[in-house]
């Protein structure tokens, strides 16, 4: 009798454990954070990392976003106390929106009135899950060649 009671109890405990683990809600499957790597930043006519005022910055990057790209933001600002900034965004309606893997390749206008000197570039990718990743590069704006 004790043996049947013991086996019956063990069976019920095992069944309960199985039911509890099988009904457990799957963990939240948040995609991995985006990954961004700048591969080129400069102008076609100047050495890498330099761009002339009044020309275009040639910018290339490799992007992987499991959560699909929602927005790519480019911010370029002066170093050492300057306040000159350039901002450009590529969001809904851009050729990158909704992609998982992208080769970002854009030409960003550097106005002729941009002061020469050292600049810092931030390339930020936001996925549709709200996660972000940023890559940075140093730039030098040089005098426009005539």
Strand content: over 45%
Measured on Cα atoms, how large is the radius of gyration?
27 Å
Order of helices and strands: HEEEEEEEE
Instruction: Average the pLDDT over all residues and give the rounded result.
Output: 87
Low-confidence stretches: none
Morphology:
elongated
Derived structural class: mainly beta
Summarize the biggest pleated sheet. Answer: 5 strands, mixed
Q: Quickly count the helices.
A: 1
Beta strand count: 8
Give a brief description:
By secondary structure, the protein is mostly beta strands.
Task: Describe this protein's structure.
By secondary structure, this protein is mainly β. The longest helix has 21 residues, at 2-22. The chain has a 5-stranded mixed β-sheet, with no helix packed on it. Strands 1-3-6 form a 3-stranded antiparallel β-sheet, with no helix packed on it. It has 1 helix and 8 strands. It has one helix spanning 2-22, and strands at residues 35-42, 50-52, 56-64, 69-78, 85-90, 101-109, 117-127, 132-142.
Helix/strand layout:
Layout: H1 2-22, E1 35-42, E2 50-52, E3 56-64, E4 69-78, E5 85-90, E6 101-109, E7 117-127, E8 132-142
Parallel strand pairs: 2-8
Antiparallel strand pairs: 1-3, 3-6, 4-5, 4-7, 7-8
List the keywords:
three-stranded antiparallel sheet; 146 residues; 1 helix
């Amino acid at each position: 009798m004790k043996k049947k009671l013991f086996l019956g109890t063990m069976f019920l405990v095992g069944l309960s454990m199985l039911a509890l683990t099988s009904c457990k809600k799957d963990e939240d499957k948040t995609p991995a954070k985006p990954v961004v790597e700048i591969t080129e930043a400069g102008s076609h006519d100047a050495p890498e990392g330099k761009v002339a005022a009044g020309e275009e910055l040639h910018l290339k990057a490799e992007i992987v976003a499991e959560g699909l790209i929602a927005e790519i933001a480019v911010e370029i600002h002066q170093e050492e106390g300057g306040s000159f900034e350039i901002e450009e965004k590529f969001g809904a309606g851009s050729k990158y929106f909704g992609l998982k893997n992208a080769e970002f390749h854009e030409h960003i206008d550097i106005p002729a009135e941009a002061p020469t000197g050292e600049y810092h570039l931030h390339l930020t990718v936001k996925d549709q899950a709200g996660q972000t990743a940023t890559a940075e590069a140093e730039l030098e704006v040089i005098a426009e060649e005539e």
